[in-house]
Amino acid sequence: MALIEMTDLVKHYKQGRTTVRALDGVSLGIDAGEFVSVVGRSGSGKTTMLDLCGLLMRPTSGRIRIEGVDTAQLSDGRRAELRGNRIGFVFQEYNLLPSLNVLENVELPLRYTGDRALGRRRSVELLEAVGLSDKIRARADELSGGQQQRVAIARALVNRPALLLADEPTGALDTETASEFVSLLRNLNEGEGLTVMIVTHDLELAAQTDRIIRLRDGHVIEDARQLQWEREEVAV
Amino acid sequence: MEILRNFKRRKLRSALTISGILIGILALTTMGAMAEHVNALLDGGVKYYSSSIQVSTASDSSPLLATSTGAQLEAIAGVAAAYPGIGLQADSSSQGISFGPSKQVVTWDPGVERYSTLAMPLASGRVLADSDRGVVVVGSNVARDWNLRVGGSVDLPKKPKDAPASFVNHAFTVVGILKPTLTAPDQFLYVSLPDSQMLLGDTLSPALKGKLDPTTLAQGFSVYAAKGSSMDTLDAIARRISKEVPGVKASLPSQIVSSFKSGSLIFSAITTGAALLALVIGGLSVINTMLMAVSERVREIGLKKAVGAKTHHILREFMAESVVIGLIGGLVGYGLGLVLTTVFNALLGPGNELFLVTPALTGLAIGFAVCLGAIAGVIPAWRASRMDPVAALRAQ
Predict the structure, then answer these.
(1) C-alpha span between B35 and B354 (Å, rounded)
(2) Neighbours of B97 (CB within 10 A)
(3) Whole-prediction pTM value?
(4) CB 3.0–4.6 Å: which of A56, A92, A218, B136 could bond A24 by disulfide?
(5) ipTM score assigned to the predicted complex
(6) Of B226, B251, B276, which residue is a domain's last?
(7) Do residue A56 and residue B9 have CB atoms under 8 angstroms apart?
(8) CATH fold of A2-66+82-235, please?
(9) What residue ranges do the domains of chain A occupy?
(10) What is the spatial distance between Cα A200 and Cα B353, in angstroms, rounded to a whole number?
């Protein structure tokens, strides 16, 4: 069974008098444990796809099932619960809260879902895993870009989600830090079976994933799986 | 902690917002304390005059009545008892502004306790007995100001520094001290009728001294009906007294009580005005600050929604923030008000206090500040909670 199943997914926006067809009849599935990238030019609909899969918005028509649950039938509250428990987000600009320290930022999702007492240990373990155990009490704005992105990953994983959605996650990082970031996601994907979906316009980053979905004008124009040696060739 | 850190990050704005509430609550505390003081005084008056009828002479030429008038009064239908009374200045030398009654020597008949609704509990010693002479029960302010103790002695009236050679006073032994009532009795020294008549005799002019027998005189009567009688009943008795007893006039208790209550209403209006001032100044500053906080923290709201926050979580967080603003402003404003009223009371001196900070006022000031914060936070918090997560996350 697919972790995410999109069926004839349509999302239209009103922009002034014109209607923007951000997604126009997309049907595809993403299995548990996949490492997928979604690429395309600006306006191709890739971020809209991420927002729909992340239950941050509702489609104009069509259906999204997550772990077999038809999300169209869910109330806003249930969608928020599903987001908090099963989906982790990583954003280009990290979105760490300046009023919280590093550990508190990681624990933030536990405030709304999950067990805060158990979550404390998990948060510390995750910060150790991303190499920030010495920055637990630091303020978020005292960290470098790469460090902030690692905190954002720890935050995304604290509730043990099934799906990690990353929106241009390396956009604000230098090449070396971006490479480290991809390795970290790869380890999580292979080690913990985490399903990863990255939205990016960076083709080098996309080339390091197992599957590339290419969008144009709201349509899927290519859906290609890559072999390991192809990925490694790109990485070299 | 997060709320306090958010305040710390925007120190100036937080301080200005809290100042808005602070000013309002300071006004509420000081004005409220003044109203509480006056209302306590007036409340005592209401209690006293709603259970008795004050009878005085109808004559313009003499302020005095014969004690024998008491029998005529008690013969009126509905009258249970009539007690002659005398009230004299206890300290004619006291000067300056006074916000309550002056210290007075007042007649006290032990029988009054059976009818009066104004409770006057003892702090120490005992009340007057029928046979007492040369003894006094003093109010709490008098005891404090004149440093009186049970068993001690006080000369009445107090001798002024510029007293003439003919000035006469008498030593009284203090047998009881009343608990504070926050109203007139705190300023009174209660003596028996014969003693008050003796003191009245001392005040008569030399021309009258030979002609009048002070032991037959009173300045007025307090007339009582059966305990628990209604105001209408007392008014009816007062009318009968004025009509049927020659040479006297009886005040209608309802009119006296009404004048006290209208005074109380004025001061309640002052408190309400201060509360409205707090509402406008504090409320607007909290609304402004919280709306700014919402617009500045749009991405934060978006992120929280993305990681699982529901509408009620966001609503609660922003409401909590504005309630904390209200609480801090309330505590500081109330604290400053308390200091200010204490200092003013100390400057005005014992017996002349203008402010009374009661537990009810404390609860009102802080509770009002918290409610103000909560109410003012509703619109910004609602706006934050209804925000579209996608638009919020992508906001610049």
Answers:
(1) 9
(2) 8
(3) 0.71
(4) A218
(5) 0.89
(6) B251
(7) no
(8) Rossmann fold (3.40.50)
(9) 2-66+82-235
(10) 75
